[in-house]
């Protein structure tokens, strides 16, 4: 209907699902559409869906690049709104489906479509046909190939293209389980004969009877494989660069040699158009009957099957009711095809009569399996299910049939063996057949549904072999329905492309997806956030002491974590990365022509090591070369006889203690070489053992990746070398700061690519009441983080669905000239904002909303592009997606901004330890140890208590720690919402008693976590998240810990939490073995007990009489933690490489500490839980066993130092 003319379309008010359809007469390439309201009225459509089809049946919804299916319409009846399609669509029919319209009027619409003519060469394959393209010569050898085609398929399996050669070359393009797979090998019979064939897969749900475009481009081994808008780049396997194919290429199937019409795999069933092989139009040659083409049962027009599907949209209210046909002698039979992602849903419910007693037949999906139930009136049930290996919520079409014959009900799924229920009496249908769900008025009477309503697609419903016409149902001629879409299957693959990062595994339901981050080292809704600190310096600031750690230098960036040793001395924190050969090695018999070579493996990629070195302030690596008649340089011409390799594999000929470009050793700079005629001791070429030792410290070359020694072949010539671990100190990003002292000033950085997920974190301190921390703008989208008031930080953004504001309000002012931490995150699932240790505020992304955040301007830090509302104060450690911004360097060239930040607490000097907070004072600083388990001026003094039998400490949280949300959701359920905060627990203990209770965390809903010593002294962690389930037990340490030695225990949790609303008094919820350990009490010593920012043991000593702390029995302040440190100080001083000083975190003695949480008990069990979302609230529940998932995050410190053992969990 042309625009700018009178009239317009408006449906009848009684039309339940109105739509306007446009027939273009022939297939056209549509590039844009435009809409307008009905002329001279208050009728217009403000939002609509655009569907398209070749035949007027089997429709598909047009979606933007970020999968948004809703198009914005009009806001009045006169204005024309154009939409240029991001991808043109080739179709004959367009259907406009109104979603929203003027509330003061009716649906009114005028439309126009823009595009051009589209010509295509089409071939139809019926599942038994093929095209063979025969070469003029025996074999075709190519180094470059370009293959393009478009297809639409009626089946999930089928070969589109195949060619092979006698030398092992092959290429195969096929559909497998609805995905497109490309098999390619170049000249390698070994690969072809083995199981290591290379397969690259794209797409899913490709059996949707709609056109899909394919392009394969190959040059030598480099291949670009494109399906629709998604391209995969890969390198082909094989020894050669050319693809050698013998005799022919086949399209539509793989024929057996000498047996025409017989195929190795299932043939393609569907249509192909515009098939080109290296510029040759294959279908055109076939149509013109050219001799090089053999055409077997191929026709040249696309036949269109009438497979009309219906989409069940709602998991709570969708249903289709069909009348029961008259009984037949053969009995009842129902047959249908369905596809879904949901693990639960009702397929069929019907009331039957058996000897005049009502009963029900139920067909449902339960936990991904198909189940048939015969439900009698006295609640007796009989049921059969498919096997555990047969999963039906995989998005594929499945065929199921249910039939009765005699005293037997039989269920058949696909090609699986039939399952039967034996009946006592004959069944007769009484009421309607209900598919997908039950009407609200009928539920419990003529229809029962013990599970959710079905969300998915159904087609080809046959009742007693009579097909159901969905068009008659839609028109109201037969049956009834609710929340259905006809003639379309609206299934989407929300895991393609996958938004789960860092190796997270994507699973999905009909309306959402979930990322399983177990074992990845990352957490969050999309596995974006590293669970590890970025440096050893960050671990020290968090209160950790020396030990083995995983660090993630680029945080949420693409690089994974590195295993390192953190050596935390009084003056510095050293990051130590060991390699595979740190011990001394002896070399004999090597020459310059055949040198001795050794490669060093650090257990990390070069990119990870480069990032670690770049973020460190200083790095060094000790290299020792002991020699006897083994020179480093030729004494005649100075040519190197030995060398080492830098991190890029380049030769380096300078040795420890000197700078690059100088072929010397440390003794030459110190002027103490044994022979002053040479620059290295070993170049004196003496028969005695000499030594050239020093530290390499040029960061751009570190770490050493290898060493080559070439002068040990002469008589009595030998060398002994060692290359120490990489050692780095300092974290450049933590204290990289800028000071803003003019409101109009700012720092600007290039635009950042943060389309689908980003996190921004930084520290600030200010005395101003407000100011913008950072701003980044697009044409419509934006992000802004600002101090909006003296006690409030806001995170604002627009990703295409309208502005969103998240705010965290602090109970104390934030403009107190002290450091505060801010972290904002946005991904396709949610957005969140956290300030210091205040509760996290987060907001779920809108369902089917825009995914892509499009920003095209520079990133402004400390101000805005308009130079208004600028920030006055200091910002440091600015990090975006793991990339640290060099504020210090940029500030040096920016007016109104200075590098660094004044004050004692603005450097890495580390005045305050173990979570102590540095507080600026006019004449210096003080350490606030309130949230530290330690005391003293620098928060380094152990707080230890000895417990006698019958003693205990109970700490009750005063404030509610529930997570704030930007949504209305009830929190009465203990698991209705979840937190994204981080939990850390630490305690040290010394005892000889077992069993013994160390620590428990209880909730009023009989959930608990308990840490105990079992009868044999082994450490056990008990947890029960649901009172109706048995507790789970995890034993990370099996050795006897009740040995009178000091043991340190740390637990780290990042992820989902359990919420409660009241306090549980006593331990009635504890299981027998845990309660027994508690009844035995604890006799021994605890030290420096920490739970997040709470130090309950310290509170018990310093705040006796407080309502937060209740003490039973006699407690005696002790120094067992400090004594344990003293007893091991000598061994630590002797071992400077790993334990030069262990500070913080030594925790010793408690009998029984119960942290009774008022509003939330944050547990540490995260990555063994799956997500289950209901229609009203979101519930995230553990389903995996603890041991399987939690061992991925288990870090055991195996080092033993005399009397102290340390465990990281």
Question: What does this entry look like structurally?
Answer:
This protein is mainly β. Helices cover 6% and strands 43% of the residues. The protein has 11 helices and 89 strands. The strands form 17 sheets. Strands 55, 57, 62, 63, 64, 66, 67, 68 and 73 form a 9-stranded mixed beta sheet that branches. Strands 8, 10, 11, 12, 13, 17, 18 and 23 form an 8-stranded mixed beta sheet that branches. Strands 24, 26, 31, 32, 33, 35, 36 and 38 form an 8-stranded antiparallel beta sheet that branches. A hairpin with a 7-residue loop joins strand 77 and strand 78. The protein is globular. The protein starts with 19 loop residues before the first strand and ends with a strand. The relative contact order is 0.07. The model is unreliable at 191-195, 959-981, 1055-1069 and 1128-1209 (pLDDT under 50).
Give a nutshell description of this structure.
This protein is mostly beta strands and 1209 residues long.
Distance between the termini: 68 Å
Number of helices: 11
DSSP, total strands: 89
Structural class: mainly beta
Oligomer: single chain
Residue stretches low in confidence (pLDDT < 50, at least 5 long) are 191-195, 959-981, 1055-1069, 1128-1209
Helix percentage range: under 10%
- Alpha carbon gyration radius: 36 Å
Strand content: 35-45%
Gross geometry: globular
Major β-sheet, in short?
Answer: 9 strands, mixed
What is the mean predicted local confidence, pLDDT?
82
